[in-house]
Design brief:
The protein is mostly helical. It is 64% helix and 0% strand. The chain has 33 helices and no strands. Helix 20 runs antiparallel to helix 21. The chain is elongated, with a radius of gyration of 33 Å.
Length: 691
């Protein structure tokens, strides 16, 4: 239980760190460490929010005590000018004369004696020591739990500085041992939503990709290299025009995806400044938060109000037109969005946000040539903007150029080693190459630093599914939904896990996942259809019919759902309740009557014919039943159809035909566990005894 609690505190601490809620981050991370003192990731993030270098060094040394080969910690200490092997200098303290102090010779002798013992213990703890590593096969990813940290280090060498040295302000701390009991400052990483890989060293032999990677082009040395120690700040999602701590904190909340929390502050700030300032920021950021929450009408009103006010004061309205471009793009009105973005750039050519909107609009309309032109223009003005590099990577993926997308992600990580979206862009490029093993490695690197990323775990589950590793896929999806409250961000993981449960013949578990989605969003038709099919497979025929009726109310021409309802009516009918049984068969026959099977596809048509034959058999319309089952068998043979044909022939008095069908079922029943096999054998023996 404490392990699960430690993970929850760790995830909450990282989220607080990314939002620059420093004191909260330190408190949560310290709690995680109390519950799990051996958690390297927790110590790593705690180092990133340390008050000063003394605390930071303490955290890094704690990591090395857990894992002496953790290169992130080693490089972090080196960046701080401390050798990894250096021991902290203890303050001189008076020692009681009654306490004996060993001589230097005795200490050295003890160290020599302990050497073989430590070496032996280390060898026993390494389960991979005797393994001879071989090249992995295509489309498979070996598990690297014992070497995960080394992988992450080689793939993202610069992330150490981002994760460990992100403190912008230095405070005084004289007692590093109190680190697990006190609070700290945290770096806020702009949440970015894209996948990518950085090919690099792995402790096992690298997987041979299906396609050979071309050598990576050199990165333009004029671009700034990400180094928080040198004062680099992470590229924000939205341009910064910030004055004052209050609005800065609100914008950090937007960057962290907590728009609903930021909104009241921005609304109050806008009302306060409405008559006293021509500052566009409150209008702009309030509209961004409203748009992210889906209220584009109110967002538009806020921006129009701001434009009118600033025009009366003769102030620049470029930022607010950029906001309108964002609002209209969210509605899908790309023409109006482009017009507002052009107005924004005319009013203030230094803005970069209008370019984001223009490029996304071009990508949404598949105008890749225009997107490329806009990116060239934008990067001439803003060459080091990480979001532009990620948009270029997105463009290259859409164009079928994953190698170029990988390079774009590489540049983004060079500039900003903390850009989450760049890691995801790498993984997506790996998937486009068909190199699922490398995608797994890059996602593991990312999840080592961001273990609470729902999108990261979901993508890892998708990759595991692609490589055919269903159990590990379910494990990854489960990490994505391992929270007390389900949110829309977790829906893809729940849907994917439910699909796997269905394929693995675990319909009850699939039913539970679909229900979790519908509890949050009852209008999710994909989840409702999934639940209807899972309910049918689980034998919950009444619940399946309820969901199908809801779906058919909005989509009456879904003939596949009509067929599923007929199947549920027939399979769920109870012969002991004669009236209900007849009513169910009648309703099912009404669905399947006439030319209904002909409107279905080739895969579903024989199913409809088989079920109609079952109903007609019960209604003693044997000739019609025989015609339907013969047509179903002509399309595809199955045990249930041969068994049904045997029963029809038996009812018609054609004993030889019935024996032939039951014998077919008996022979194939040695291979397939037909549920009707005992009845077929009993009927076969009875007919044989009569002849």
């Amino acid at each position: 239980m404490s392990g699960e609690q430690a993970i929850q505190y760790l995830q909450q601490g990282i989220a607080a760190a990314k939002a620059k809620r420093t004191e909260e981050a330190r408190r949560l991370l310290q709690t995680a460490i109390r519950l799990d003192p051996e958690n390297e990731t927790a110590w790593l993030w705690l180092a990133s929010v340390a008050k000063d270098n003394q605390e930071r060094i303490f955290c890094l040394r704690q990591i090395l005590q857990i894992n002496p080969r953790n290169e992130l910690a080693i490089k972090g200490l080196q960046a701080l000018g401390v050798a990894a092997g250096d021991q902290p200098q203890a303050a001189a303290r008076p020692v009681a004369s009654s306490v004996p102090r060993p001589t230097a010779e005795r200490i050295k002798a003890a160290q020599r004696a302990l050497g073989p013992i430590i070496q032996s213990a280390t060898e026993r703890e390494d389960p991979y020591a005797q393994i001879q590593w071989v090249h992995k096969r295509r489309n498979r990813a070996g598990e690297r739990a014992a070497t995960l940290f080394t992988i992450g280090i080689r793939v993202v060498p610069v992330l150490l500085i981002v994760g460990l040295l992100a403190a912008g302000a230095y405070f005084v701390s004289t007692n590093p041992n109190a680190i697990a009991l006190a609070p700290t400052w945290t770096p806020s990483h702009t949440p970015t939503v894209t996948p990518t890989p950085t090919p690099g060293y792995t402790p096992t032999p690298s997987p041979t990709p299906r396609l050979t990677y071309t050598p990576s082009p050199a990165i333009d040395p004029s671009l700034p290299r990400g180094d928080l120690a040198a004062g680099m700040t992470i590229t924000p999602v939205y341009p910064r025009f910030l004055e004052g701590r209050v609005i800065q904190e609100a914008v950090m909340l937007i960057d962290a995806g907590r728009d609903s929390v930021a909104l009241p502050t921005l609304s109050a700030l806008r009302e306060t400044l409405l008559e006293t300032s021509n500052n566009p920021n409150p209008f702009y950021y309030e509209a961004i938060a409203l748009t992210n929450l889906g209220d584009t009408e109110r967002a538009e009103r806020v921006l129009q109000e701001g434009i009118e006010r600033l025009e009366r004061l003769g102030a620049n309205t470029g930022l607010l037109h950029a906001g309108l471009a964002y609002v209209y793009a969210a509605r899908g009105n790309y023409r109006a969005s482009n017009e507002e973005a052009d107005l924004a750039l005319t009013g203030d050519p230094a803005l970069v946000q209008p370019y984001y909107t223009l490029v996304r609009n071009a990508l949404a309309t598949e105008n890749y040539q225009e997107a490329s032109r806009l990116l060239n223009e934008a990067q001439d003005r803003h060459p080091a903007d990480v979001n532009l590099w990620l948009l270029r990577g997105e463009l290259n993926l859409l164009r079928g150029q994953p190698a170029e997308a990988q390079q774009n992600a590489r540049v983004a990580l060079y500039i900003d080693p903390g850009a989450e979206e760049a890691y995801l862009l790498q993984a997506r490029a790996d998937i486009a190459f068909g190199d699922y093993g490398l995608a797994v490695l890059h996602l593991q690197d990312y999840l080592f630093l961001y273990p609470g990323s729902i999108q990261g775990w979901t993508m890892l589950g998708d990759v595991r599914t692609l490589e055919g590793n269903d159990m590990l896929a379910i494990e990854a999806y489960s990490r994505a939904v391992n929270t007390e409250q389900i949110t829309a961000e977790q829906f893809p993981a729940l849907m994917a896990r439910a699909a796997l449960f269905t394929r693995l013949h675990q319909p009850e578990r699939a039913y539970a996942d679909y229900t979790a989605i519908l509890d949050v969003n009852p209008d999710d038709t994909a989840a409702r259809e999934g639940r209807a099919r899972a309910a049918y497979q689980a034998g919950r025929f009444g619940e399946a019919i309820e969901d199908i009726d809801i779906l058919l109310a909005d989509a009456p021409s879904r003939y596949d759902l009509r067929l599923l309802k007929a199947q549920a009516l027939v399979d769920g009918a109870n012969p002991r309740n004669e009236d209900a049984y007849r009513r169910a068969l009648r309703d099912a026959l009404n669905i399947l009557a006439g030319g209904f099977p002909t409107v279905l596809g080739a895969d579903l048509r024989p199913v409809a014919l088989e079920y109609r034959a079952r109903i007609l058999l019960e209604q003693r319309q044997y000739r019609s039943a025989l015609a339907d089952i013969d047509a179903a068998l002509a399309a595809r043979e199955s045990g249930s159809r041969h068994y049904l044909r045997g029963r029809i022939q038996e009812a018609l008095g054609n004993e030889e035909e019935a024996i032939r069908e039951y014998d077919w079922v008996q022979r194939w029943g040695r291979i397939y566990a037909y549920p009707f096999l005992p009845d077929a054998i009993a009927r076969l023996e009875a007919l044989a005894a009569q002849s």
